[in-house]
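Retro notes, item 3 of 5
We never archived the inputs for the carboxymethyl coenzyme *A complex last cycle. Fixing that now. Sequence and ligand:
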Amino acid sequence: MGEDLGFSKGLAGVVADATSVSQVQGEDGRLIYRGISIEELAEKSTYEECVYFSLYGKMPTKNQLTKFNTELRHNRVLPKAVEAVIAAAPRSAHPMAVLQAAVAAMGFDEQPVNLKNEDANIHNAIKIISQLATAVAHISRDRRGLSHIPPNTEMSHAENFLYMLHGKVPNKEEARIFDVALILHLDHDFNASTFSARVVASTEAKLSLSISAAIGALSGPLHGGANEKVLEMADGIGAPEHAKEWVLNAIATKAKVMGFGHRVYRTMDPRAKVLRGMLEKLVATKSDKSTYETLRIVHDTMIEELGKTSKDYIWPNVDFWSGSLYRLMDIDSIDFTPIFAVSRVAGWSSHIIEMWRDNRIYRPSAKYVGPTDAKYQDIKNRK
Ligand code: CMC
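Structure as it came back at the time:
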C-alpha cells in the first residue's frame, strides 16, 4: 500500500525485470544476444553455440561445445509418455496445441524445482530443447499420416530437425539457412511468450510446465502465430498482380497486415533483414517465385503507403519473411509456429534460469474498475 500504482495497457513501456539474455533496441532496429548483434551471430555462429551462450552466459570453448553437442544429440529420443500424448491427438489438431500438451508431458517425470541447483536446471533445459525439436517433427509427420523418423545423433540440430521432418538428409545450404533462422528466433527480451514463461516459472513451477505455458502464448496470431498467417494472407491474395490493390484496401479499411508492426521496433526488425537476404538467395534457385513476389509487393506497398502517414513506425517484423523461407524448404504453413518454438525454447529456458538466481514471484496489481459496494441479490429476485 502507499505505492504509486502505474497503469499501462498491455504493459507497454513497463520494466518488469532485469535480464542480460538479450536486448531489443527498438529505435535503432538492433537486437543483441548478451551484447553480440544477431547479424554477427548469424554470420559466424551456429544455433548450438548460441544456445550454449544463452544458457551459460559465455561462449563455449571447443571442448565445451563438443560436450554440449553430445548432450543435445543424445537427448533427442522422446519418452514413451510424450509419444503417447502426441499419438492421442487428432490429426485435425493444430500442432501448437499438440506441442503444448507434449511439452507438459515432459514434466511427468521431472523432479520439483531446486532453484539452487542451476547445473541440474541447465541439463533439464538441454533435454527439453533437444526433445522439443523431435516432438515438432513427430507431430508434423503424424498429421501428414507419415511414420516417425528417429533422430540421428550424427547431425546438427538444424540438419536433424529437417531430416526428421522430411525423412531425407537436407543439403548443406538449406541446413545452414535453417540453422541461421533458428539463431534469429532464439530470443527477444520480454516478448509475450518469454514473459509467460517467466511468470509461470516465478511460482517455482517446473521448467517443462513453464515452457508449455510459453508455447500457448507463442501460438497466438499477434505473436508467433503471425508467421502462419502471413502465408495465409499471401495465399488469399492469390497472385502478385493483386497484391498492391489488396494492401491499399487493407490500409483503407484499417485491417491488420500480418508480419507488420511491433511493440518495440520503430524501424525494420533486424531479423527480417537477415531472413530476406537468405530468402532472396534461395528463391533465385527455385522455379516457383509467386509467394515471394506477392509478399515483396505487400512489403514495398506497405512501407511506401504507411510512410506517407502517421503510422510510418509500422515496419515488417520477423514473421513476415520466415514463412516464405520455410515454404521453399517444403514445410507446411501450419508447422511454421512450432518451428519458432524449436528455436525460442532456448530463450525461454535461459530467461528462467537467469530469473531463478534471484527469484521473486510475478504478481502485478490491477486497476479495479468494477463496483465497490454492490449487494448480493437472491436468485428469485433477479431479472
Ligand atoms: N497492420 C496494420 N496496422 C497495424 C499493424 C499491422 N500489422 N500493427 C499495428 N497497427 C496499427 C494498429 O491498428 C494501431 O492503430 P490505431 O492507433 O489506429 O488503433 C497502431 O498501429 C498501433 O498498434 P498497436 O496494436 O497498439 O501495437 P501493439 O504494440 O499493441 O501491437 C503487434 C504490436 C505486433 C501485436 C501488432 O503490430 C500486430 O498485431 N501486428 C500483426 C501481427 C504480427 O505480425 N505479429 C508478430 C509480432 S513480431 C514477432 C512475434 O512476436 O512473433
